[in-house]
Amino acid sequence: MSTKSQYALAAISILLVAANVRGADTSGDVLRHPPNIVLIMADDLGYGDVGFNGQKHIKTPNLDRMAREGMVLTNHYAGAPVCMPSRGSLLTGKHLGNATIRGNRKWTNSGTAVDLGPADVTFAEELKRVGYTTAIIGKWGMAEASDDGMPSRQGFDYFFGYRRHVDAHHYYWPTLWENEQTVELPANDHLNKKGEYVHDLLTQAALDFVGEHAETPFLLFLSYTIPHYELTVPEESKAPYQNLGWPERLMKPGHYRHDPEGNTAYAGMVSRMDTDIGRMLDRLGELGIDKNTLVIFTSDNGPEYERTDRFFNSNGPLRGGKRDLYEGGIRVPFVARWPGKIAAGKRSDHPSAFWDFLPTVCEIAGVSPQDAVDGLSYLPTLIEAPQGQARHPYLYWEFNERQGPIQAVRQNNWKAVMFQNRAIELYDLSSDISESVDLSNLYPGKTRELEGLINTARTEHPEFPLTNRSK
After folding, report:
1. Which residues contact 115 (CB under 8 A, 6 or more apart)?
2. All structural domains of the chain
3. pLDDT tens digits, one per residue of 427-439
């Protein structure tokens, strides 16, 4: 049997399962109209910053609508506790023990950013094999030092947004990229926060892309920068949160040109993003393609803004935040909506991670990944076909900035965190989601077992040795 025939049979099998489980479209209709995929990712949004995970102060009605109409994964993890390696893991389906990118740009051995290269295979490249039109709109950050990492060379037909991380720190930045050309915004002044709010340009570009490609299968990666520092948003988004008696958190501008008061700015940013996600959902409905579109929302790592001040309780019960390998740094919100395929109002505790996205969309498209990956498709969980759901023997992370190196592993409900020159810590997440009680002395056998996993989970990388990187 030819490879093409095998792919076709795989696609038929998967879509028949989806149709049988959900009682939805016939397989023939779905095969004539392959599902669109929209992945929306926030930047530094905490697990508890959304209403469906318990947020009380910030209003997220459209994300909550997605939760009512779809499935929430309560044990979903980012690829890393910071941006660049987390996104690299998402794009290539590999955890940090095997990934090309294992740290942010300045924390390499040479001091030069490691970007995606020609040998890396992204989820966009996988879907282009079966006729998808692919786009990344928003923050890219995988081509810091080399053009090899540009989206157009990593499987994306269209790119609009920020090429580099530092540019994406500013919401009134004057230079964006469209494909491999710069786009100048002459009215934008990031120091004085004047001109066009770039987030709005990203949203409009995403809505335009969906409208232009409604008749053909598409993949859209909408990579928002909200609510990453800097904290600034147009006044109309802050208005609903003013005069509520909230405590004020005064912000000092420097590299980040923050608005004067942080709490109303943070809430306004998240709500502005939520409003635009609602616009995307409505647009899919207007185009008549919402039932044939899988929409996923998540965040790239834990929060930065609320590492100490806990007014919003951005992490809910979780310990830590951005740059931590405790749950608060890596467990992130996740909701998926696919009317007729994913049942409404469901929650699952299936442990999954960013490196599972690539094999998931490959399974939806009926192809096998071209490169070795660490991920496992969570499609069976989404469509409630648990008999087909493979489970990870473990999940692995590493992180190496000033406080590193740090490594962590999760096996079922056991979690181990290991700092260099410190005793390994062991937690039982089934009874201690806050990682408050170290059980390593009570369970030495399990501690040794997880330490063994940590010590064997990674391959060596010359740019990311596990040596102290305190620069």
Report:
1. 101, 142, 143, 144, 145, 146, 148, 149
2. 3-392 (3.40.720.10), 398-456 (3.30.1120.10)
3. 999 999 999 999 9
